[in-house]
Amino acid sequence: MSIRKFGTIQMKTLSTMAATLVLVCVCSTVQGGAMISNGDFGTSGAPPTVFADWETDTSFSFVSPTDMGGIALFVESLDGVQLSQLFDLPANALRLSFEYQLMTSGVYDGTSVRDSFQATLFNNTFDVLFPSDPSDPVSFPAFFSVDNDGAEFFDSNTPSVPFVSVVSIGGDWRKVTLDLSSLPATTGLTIDFLLSGNPDGIETSVKLDNVVLTVASINPAPVPEPSSAVCYLTLLAIGMNLRRGRRLPTVWKTSSQPLAA
Fold first, then answer.
1. To pair with 5 at 20 to 30 A between CA atoms, which of 96, 119, 193, 232?
2. CA distance 32 to 253
3. Which of 9-13, 46-50, 224-228 has the highest mean pLDDT?
4. Distance between CA 48 and CA 19 in Å, rounded?
5. With left for phi above 0 and alpha for psi between -120 and 50, is residue 170 left, alpha or beta?
6. Is 80 exposed, middle or buried (0-12, 13-18, 19+ CB in 10 A)?
């Protein structure tokens, strides 16, 4: 468990959450689903931001990341480089995850506050959720932060029940996962990413990709395996309905569009 102090993060945002409806067979498992829209940064939006469904709060002089054609590139600025999105949390939400890669050049001056990349989650009244230090969420708001020397800071809650986990996924990329299973369904959450730059002698950049909200499957009551005779009669009934021009009942499910790794 590691904790560090951050500068105060201020932001506000208006955006929308998207979901995809998929038609499935009547007897299929019905799954709940939700996603953070354009979490793979594959859809270009209109100026002033090049990322559809994401927002940069210029009222606090933040600047937008650079579009790398499927990756958001945060290049150090003393004003701060920021990206956020408003989304709704379904009752069966499990976790929020993202992938990042840290890049640096230069020599640390040995005394200045280091650049840091921070991920923070706000509720619909802009209270911080899962702060690194629950006793001081103003000083420790982010659920995850990494300095430009590669030191990662987060509060894993307890060794047996962590709410943040970080793993290496190859090529200097790291995956950060926040456990959301303790939260009830709610609207108007905000995920906020910020690269906070400081004159420390090092130029810091961060690549961000695959921001994903994962939800659990919702399984209906088990359906007994039909016998061959029942299958035959069911198919016969379907054929008769189709010949008569009757519309068959359908069941819809909501699922997240899978994002590229």
1. 96
2. 7
3. 46-50
4. 24
5. left
6. buried
